[in-house]
Specification:
single chain, 92 residues, globular
Length: 92
């Protein structure tokens, strides 16, 4: 799966890693819904770090369609709230 981190670029991520990412996504969803700014900031950072660590970066000139788009590390709680669906940022 191709994942884009807004403002950074794309990574290719094996589907085997989605269980770990979904756990972090569930935490992030709860923190956004509860207005927990500190928890939100910590979990967003951890989620994005996990995507970077587990994925393989695509070249900057690659134009692959992104199957999943994640917010930038600087995104606010309100901006992420607008991006969230019923299942969080990561479906499944």
């Amino acid at each position: 799966m191709i994942v884009r981190i807004m403002g950074e670029g794309q990574v290719k991520l094996d589907d085997a890693h989605f269980a770990e990412l979904n756990e972090l996504d569930d935490e992030l969803l709860a923190e956004v819904e509860g207005g927990d700014e500190a928890g939100f900031r910590r979990t967003l950072s951890t989620l994005l770090d996990a995507v970077r660590r587990l994925g393989a970066p695509l070249p900057d000139d690659a134009l692959e369609p992104s199957e999943l788009i994640l917010p930038s590390p600087e995104a606010t709680l309100e901006e992420v709230r607008e991006l969230l669906g019923d299942e969080g940022l990561i479906p499944g």
